[in-house]
Queue: 4 jobs
Job 1
Amino acid sequence: MARPKIVMYATGWCPYCARARRLLGSKGVAFEEIDVEARPDAREEMVRRSGGRRTVPQIFIGDTHVGGSDDLHALDASGGLDRLLADRDS
């Protein structure tokens, strides 16, 4: 099975984006970061993919919409993030 791509829609100045970057970095995973300020069309794409959410970050692991930074940290606390990341190696 191919590894799902990790994508985070973000801005350079957002503290929640920085928090999510740190957590993903601590897991040792590579991810694509899309700056919604540098690419205004990407914000529309993010809103569509996330079901209407307009805040950054919005994080996707494969087809799974994880949500924002708080969602990512809650998923990690429950052990779900490690399971999602392990799935990408199967």
Job 2
Amino acid sequence: MFTGLIEAVGEVAERRPTSGGFRLRVATALASEVSTGDSVAVNGVCLTVILADGKEIHADIGPETARVTTLGAIERGAHVNLERPLGTDGRFGGHFVQGHVDGVGRVLERRHDAEFDWLTVGFPAALAPYLIPKGSIAVDGISLTVAGLATDRFDIMVIPFTLEHTNLQYVHEGDSVNLECDMVGKYVVRAAQLAGLALPALGSTERTRG
């Protein structure tokens, strides 16, 4: 379980093909604080650390994860958000983030408002039941608030601290981002389905562990 509070921004040092997918090497100071077998969220995708050598984290990306997240198209030099799972003795901030991406969105607009930035993100139609105004959404693993909501897009306001400490500082219009809806909302929708209400189910992208 993660919180959507990013601990570090790493840089993809290598993308190497494997028999069924590929292996990522991510350069980050966080590598000295994780061990082989640990989980780490990379742009909101929960991955298993195959190797941590003090300077880099190695993680394998399977074909399904490559298909349903932005990691399938990631390239060397890309900046990625990193977060370790919440410890049992840690304080909880952000919101419940599982690292299981629900869909890929696209940045439709980026605009400045004084020292803040606004992003408009388009999302797949299947995610509409899980988004509410003022609700939580994880964008590339970052816990953010839905400030405005339309049928196929939402607005988020990004404060300067978040811009400085996440990969949103590198995001441009047209870029793809991983989206994970609030877990609580998913359970509410599922309960409504079991009660006989006609609501669309979450698609096959529900689990994306590498």
Job 3
Amino acid sequence: MQVIFKLFKGILYAKGIKLGTLDGYERLVAAIFGTPDRVPVLLQPYIYAMHLHGLSSQKFFREPIPFIHASYNTVRYFGVDAWSPVFDFYNIEAEALGQQFIWGVQMEPAVNKGNFLIKEKGDLAKLRPPKPGESGRMPFVLESYRLYHEIMKMPPIAYCCSPFTMAALVRGLQTFLMDMLEDPQFVHDLMEFLSMEVVIPWIRTMIKETGTSMVVMSDAQASPPIISPKMIREFCLPYIEKVIRATSTPQCTVIDTATWGEGWVKNPREVLDIKMDMMRSGNKLHCMRPYYLLVWQEDFEKVGIPPIRAYAEEKKICLMLNIQPILLGTGAPEMIVETVRRLIREGAGAGRFAVTINMVPVNAPVENVHVAVAAVKQFGRYPISADLNSQPFQRPTVVSFAQWVKKHGLPIED
């Protein structure tokens, strides 16, 4: 009931009915559906949380308590509005199928490119679907989500790998691309298997076990210049629609996201339209779905923020832009402040806008992340100032992460 109250409070605030102040979750909801009090800022703790706590990748990506507690400590330390427990979600289903991965030091596991699961086309017939929730690290995912729910008092946004990107992982990207040209029927057979036998059962299990109201598939490989928009529509979108149609319910929205490449095509609208189809196809009740248009820095730097903002306004959808990871890692605080000014000046509009910190390099000073978060909070107040450049930035006081964790943090071990 608490989550439902927060949801409706955020939606009402977005429409001008203000029932008190907003917390971070309510602010994000308000930004998705209209105008919040200020631009929300999101953070994916991910490997930065692992680094700050000095954890090994084996511990962070295999043990739910260190993973969730380290992630929670990190987002609380930086004071962001919203977060999700982000692990190496591209790998979970492929690993459960039997794909080998290489585990490095303080980095996410990477697919073993010397030993792809489907070396020959005939290997597809030998595959057996994983047991959803039981195979590989699926139990780690479900227990991590349970701990998140226990701590945050609300279910998480759940993540999984899309069928197309998973196919590239188990077949090898270059070989998979050649398959699309030389044997499209094999590609369709592989996509059908991964969609119906792997992704759909896993999403259904996550929904049942976690009570999540949103599942996000990620599809980084279904992007220009890796493949063309035409190929995305032929080999990727039909299966996304199948998955969404089979799993989305009035209570749970399933979407595909993380596609990129607006800056690699003549008409960026082609990619923006694909992103909309990756959310809307197979879903119903569109007016109540928490859709958002995520555009990465590599693309909006080429295309420009104003035309992307205009597209978002045309579609009445929340625009989400990220802060460049390398800027957080090596940029001067003044550069970070000016970048945030620009994102808000050109992207915030009258609402339906959010800023995400999707990846923090492990070498990034904590001061840089604090500056980014503080800048969004200071400059992102609605209505947005007509002259943000004249507003001075108040640099936040920063205590060390070790001091903060000692006083406020959750323990990493039982």
Job 4
Amino acid sequence: MSRYEQEFRRSLADPEGFWGDAATDIDWYQAPTVVLDRSKPPFYRWFADGVMNTCFNAVDRHVRDGRGQQAALIYDSPVTGTQRTYTYEELQDTIARFAGVLRRTGHPDR
């Protein structure tokens, strides 16, 4: 059995254990203490007491960890024949510029 298949089966058999382990690979401001909050069925919540920044985890930490020049996003349109690769640093810069635009227009931070 491949590692992928093992992990897939584990995710089905023990979803809380699987996702709890996976959550250790994320940078958290406040790590969750509960993986799955079942207190208000059917409105279950994953990592309800955890606090993190999705953009930081998707882009900024890769720049921080020395992978700024690595491809982060590859755009390839078969319709227009357009191809473009963005590095983590390019994405970080674009996001920062757009955040500045939002701030200047009075858009709330959250």
